[in-house]
């Protein structure tokens, strides 16, 4: 006889699960799936593998395109800032520099008078039938 002590069943035991842990809890998902179904092609999730591979490739392409968009955005932002500075400089230059050859209000009055004189004095066309040497036709 061995000296094993048998536990008395009169004591209340701490509650423990009576069922063993499922295989998915003890091993990674793919291993448990292969072991439970034999890993054959009939496993239901195998049908989605090509679609997920394609999705992964498409997401990688999307990420690359978004990086290119980010670079383009940064380049356009730099250009816009530089061009705005240039335009501001031109605007300030127009206020600070006097252009003596630019038109003044008197220039516009003279141009209007010349236009009015030209409309009142319409020259009569020559009807000699001879062509001038400088005449061109389109």
TrEMBL record:
Basic residues bias locations: 1-14
InterPro entries named among the record's database cross-references: DASH_Dam1
Gene Ontology cellular-component terms listed: DASH complex; mitotic spindle polar microtubule; mitotic spindle pole body
Keywords tagged on the record: Centromere, Chromosome, Chromosome partition, Cytoplasm, Cytoskeleton, Kinetochore, Microtubule, Nucleus
Keyword Nucleus included in the entry's annotation: yes
Protein location: Chromosome, Centromere, Kinetochore; Cytoplasm, Cytoskeleton, Spindle; Nucleus
Residue stretches of biased makeup (Low complexity): 15-27
GO biological process, one term: mitotic sister chromatid biorientation
Domain of life the protein comes from: Eukaryota
Stretches the record annotates as Disordered: 1-47, 110-138
Signal peptide location: none
Any one Pfam family match given in the protein's UniProt record, by short name: DASH_Dam1
Main location: nucleus
Presence of the UniProt keyword rRNA-binding in the record: no
Family of this protein: Belongs to the DASH complex DAM1 family.
Name of the protein this chain belongs to: DASH complex subunit DAM1
Species of provenance: Phomopsis amygdali
